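INFO batch 0412 | record 1 of 1 | parsing
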Amino acid sequence: MANPVWLAQDLSNEELAHNWTLSPNDIREIRVCRGGENQTRFAVQLCFVRQNGYFLDSYQSVSLKIVNHLCLQIDLSPVLFLADENRPATATSYRSRIIRYLGFASFDDKIGEQLSNHLREQATEGFQARELEEVSEQTLLKWKVLLPPATVLKRLISDAASYVQNDVFLLISRSLSEELNDSALEVQRF
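INFO prediction complete | emitting tokens
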């Protein structure tokens, strides 16, 4: 889950408009926050989560072009930098509000099982690990589920690939004669 390309300084106006334009409802939700810096941070996280399914840990990677585009929409003056929150309780409260506002759910065992089944289907169709990573992120965004830690996704992808590989080996072993199958099992033990 690398930072998306559109956090870069050379963001086009089209990308800026597509990924960082606030709706009237967004602006109403943002204005509930106290103070311009809090409103700006909330706006950044709101747009980022909507696009990526997870929260930024730091605002240092967000270009001023993005920050000031958001400031303009919420009637705030342009800024030279956007500092990270210094009150963890505020950040936690805002994260909860954003999740509720966007209608996202947390990743849990049930969703993990559904995603695992989906990844197995995709792996059966020939998707490689890198493609499965993209599929998993896109699927969770479509389902409006916050992305779990990268290690969880990597494990699910690895499990799906292993599952398909085992199916292929089983299919091959069923088509072999009993003698060849026994020989293959001997080689596999080493």
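INFO post-check: Residues 109-189 form one domain.
INFO record closed
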